[in-house]
Specification:
271 residues, alpha+beta, N-terminal domain of MutM-like DNA repair proteins, Helicase, Ruva Protein, domain 3, 4-stranded antiparallel sheet, 6 helices
Length: 271
């Protein structure tokens, strides 16, 4: 599933072409994605001015004249851009729209993505309970949230009500960089460790955003190119490779944790 860097990459790609412009010729090519589209979805979007494109966790929030257009990429969703109004529709293009003479398409083979329209000044239910992004989180708040549970640290970092935007890839990378075990009980982490972990989460995310995200299967930037942060993984999907921590002789191991793959070095990421 696209995580914060992949979603941020999409937002940064859309802003220069969409902000301040008018939505035209919005079309839906099916009745639903993960959930049904709101009533008169295409008709309500057409003619709206795009004021601002924001990101909240893994959600894209497009502020319009009368609505907030909420977009989630799901497992395989991507937004493609064509610098011409003569766009050749691709298989799995479920929503298509134009801005000036530029065509955009929401393409989602697995249809786990989602879209909604929220009336202006109404709360966004999708993000209502979400914690702050790592870039906005204060270490003290982060520490207090972790102290409330004895769940494994990795499980807490994947919980969007603890910290927003993280998924399996960047949690694994940040825990390795911090020398913390994914199996460590969350409420045993110290304030110093919490501060260092938050710093490393932000550093990993910033490097991933700079690289255009990670393209393991479906992620593309809006011009169709691949992200390349996957070429810089230190631990994720690196099973059997030597740990790159200085002076560590360990080997990266994969274990299943809560039904998901966890990658870590058992030598330098001890509980």
């Amino acid at each position: 599933m696209p995580e914060l860097p992949e979603v941020e990459t999409v937002c940064r790609g859309l802003r220069p072409y969409m902000e301040g412009k008018i939505l035209k010729n919005v079309e839906t090519h099916r009745e639903n994605l993960r959930n049904p589209f709101p009533p008169l979805f295409a008709e309500r979007l057409t003619g709206q001015k795009i004021n601002k494109i924001n990101r909240r966790g893994k959600y894209i929030l497009i502020e319009l004249s009368d609505y907030t257009w909420v977009m989630h990429l799901g497992m395989s969703g991507k937004v493609l851009r064509s610098l011409t109004s003569h766009y050749t529709h691709q298989k799995h293009d479920h929503v298509v729209w134009q801005v000036d003479n530029i065509t955009f398409a929401f393409n989602d083979p697995r249809r786990f993505g989602d879209m909604d329209l929220i009336a202006k000044n109404q709360p966004c239910l999708q993000t209502r309970l979400m914690a702050l992004d790592p870039f906005d989180m204060q270490a003290e708040d982060f520490y207090n949230r972790l102290q409330k549970t004895n769940r494994p640290l990795k499980a807490s970092l994947l919980d969007q009500t603890v910290i927003a935007g993280l998924g399996n890839i960047y949690v694994s990378e940040a825990l390795w960089q911090s020398g913390l075990s994914p199996f460590k009980a969350s409420n045993t982490i110290t304030k110093t460790q919490t501060q260092n972990l938050l710093k490393n989460i932000c550093e990993v995310l910033e490097r991933a955003i700079e690289a255009g995200g990670s393209s393991l299967r479906d992620h593309r930037t809006i011009d169709g190119t691949l992200g390349y942060f996957q070429h810089h993984f230190k631990v994720y999907n690196q099973t059997g490779k030597p740990c790159l921590t200085k002076d560590c002789s360990g080997t990266i191991k994969r274990e299943v944790q809560s039904g998901r793959s966890t990658y870590y070095c058992p030598t330098c990421q001890k509980k």
